[in-house]
Amino acid sequence: MDALLNFFMVFTHPQLLLLVGLGTFAGVYIGAIPGLSVTMAVSILISFTFSWDVLPALALMIGIFMGGVYGGSRTAILLNIPGAPSAIATALDGYPMAQRGEAGTAIGITTVMSFFGGFVGIAALAIAAPFVSGVALAFQPRDYMLLALLGILLVGSLSGGSLVKGIFAGAFGIALGAVGMDPLTFTERFTFGVPLLQSGISFVAVMIGMFGVSEALAQLHHIDTPAIKQKITRIVPSFGTIKKYLPLSLQTSSIGVFIGALPGTGGDIAALMAYDYAKRVTRKPARPFGQGAIEGLVAPETANNAAVGGAFIPMMTLGIPGDAVTAIMIGALFIHGLNPGPMLMIDRPEMFWFIVGALVVANVFMLIFGLTGIRLFTKIVEMPRAVLVPLIMLLSIVGAYAVNNSVTDVYWMLGFGVLGYFMRLYGYPLGPVILGLILSRLFDDNWRRAIISENENLGAFFHGIFTSPLSMVLFLAVIWIFVSQTPLVPMIKSRLFARTGTDGASK
Fold first, then answer.
1. Do 89 and 80 form a contact (C-beta atoms < 8 A)?
2. 3-state DSSP percent of the chain in helix, strand and coil, to 5
3. Of 66, 326, 445, 479, which is the most exposed, with the fewest CB atoms less than 10 Å away?
4. What is the dihedral angle through the alpha carbons of 42, 43, 49, 54, rounded to the nearest 10 degrees?
5. 156 φ/ψ sector (left φ>0, alpha ψ -120 to 50, else beta)
6. What is the chain's pLDDT, residue by residue, as a tens digit (507 residues)?
């Protein structure tokens, strides 16, 4: 009974309800602006809510978290500029849909599927928190390294058909992530004596440059082409459409929950892994992936919102943040005199159920705010290119500067924008660069932690892989993903289908 009362506390207190709604509304539009991250917004809120009671402070932060994760999809679809790293995969098929005049359909599908994924993540938090957090606790450094390697190997799925170009782009991203001070030894790496490189290269500046500036430069080739009129006749997807993609959304939501529950990961990795999974299991998409496949929207959007609930699992049960935002929330709880972890679940169980209730309310508000303002948003892509290109450049400059209030980030953004333009020109994919940059630190740090824990003995390291069931599963997944992306496997499959007659084309 106490659990139910605490769960419905947000519903019955107008102040808390208003704060969750206000936070969600702000999160949707903060997430839609490249460079204005949810992490930054929540960290700023701590200073404003320091004197508040803990429940109103958490209500506002949870609203911004839930709305911000969804909001990144708006500019990803309309301008091919992901508002957040978790929307990179959404841009791969969302932007081609906008180019076809289907921006309203794309935003409607992402909103409803984000709503669905959010509820799956919340349900997992409420029901399976102890079990999932136990699995996350079992991860050793070598397992995180293998998980990062899995993500890096996804470049084959994002490479537009060229595995070599995809791996090159991913490796380039990893190299960019290694620039700066080594977090374990505090020595400089790849700085070449330049002080500005000691703090590393901002992945937000790289992301905005690669996607935003390169897109503006590419649009210059079509400056006189008439803008595409968007079809806004139906925004909310039909029941039949939702039913069709429900099985895929359930599967990718489970990926989001699991990845979100792993400390240090988050919605960006979950979205990319879900996109890769959808590409593998979808046999006959209505359109090819990368050209406006609905499955390419459903998978990442359900996964990154399901990861929100997953990120709270280790935070509430172990006191370990699932991602950067929950790390800040742990700091907020400490400021308010609470100690996140197992004892919080015992001493203050009402906090757990309050957070679950606030997440539910935020998810409902996200659906409401997500389905409003679409007609106004879609007017962006109907602008003449002579207006749209300067707007993209302006948003890119503001977004890059806003991260650290640094003009240097703007220069990085412009430089990587030019580089991204030439990569587009010669058929090199941009997504793997950002993916490699994001996963670089996770891979590098845990590789060295794993080696140090085995006294720098490679034999002991591989012995640990083959003796740990969890490590063995991840290792086999790495091998399979790598092998399946080579031309050998499709060739064997086609020959087997031709012999058995199971391929519809051979009948």
1. no
2. 75, 0, 25
3. 479
4. 70
5. alpha
6. 566 777 788 888 899 999 999 999 988 887 776 655 676 677 667 667 777 888 888 889 889 888 888 888 887 888 777 777 778 888 888 888 888 888 788 888 899 999 999 999 999 888 877 666 566 667 788 887 887 777 666 555 555 556 678 778 888 888 888 888 887 777 888 888 888 888 888 877 887 788 778 878 887 877 776 655 656 666 778 888 888 888 899 999 999 888 887 766 677 788 888 888 888 888 888 788 888 888 888 999 999 899 888 888 877 776 666 666 776 777 777 777 777 766 676 677 778 888 889 999 999 999 998 888 777 766 665 667 777 778 778 877 887 787 678 888 889 989 999 998 998 888 887 777 877 787 787 788 888 888 887 776 777 778 788 888 888 888 888 787 677 666 655 565 556 555 555 444 443
| Residue type, position 385, single letter | R
The total number of residues written for the chain in this structure: 507
Query: 96: which 2 tokens?
Result: 């081609």
DSSP letter string, 26-93:
HHHHHHTSTT--HHHHHHHHHHHSTTS-HHHHHHHHHHHHHHHHHHHHHHHHHHS--SSGGGHHHHHH
- How far apart, in whole angstroms, are the C-alpha atoms of residue 361 and residue 164? 45
From CA 450, how far away is CA 269, in angstroms rounded? 21
For tokens 């309050």, name the residue.
354
HEC assignment per residue over 160-216: CCCHHHHHHHHHHHHHHHCCEECCCCCCEECCCCCHHHHHCCCHHHHHHHHHHHHHH
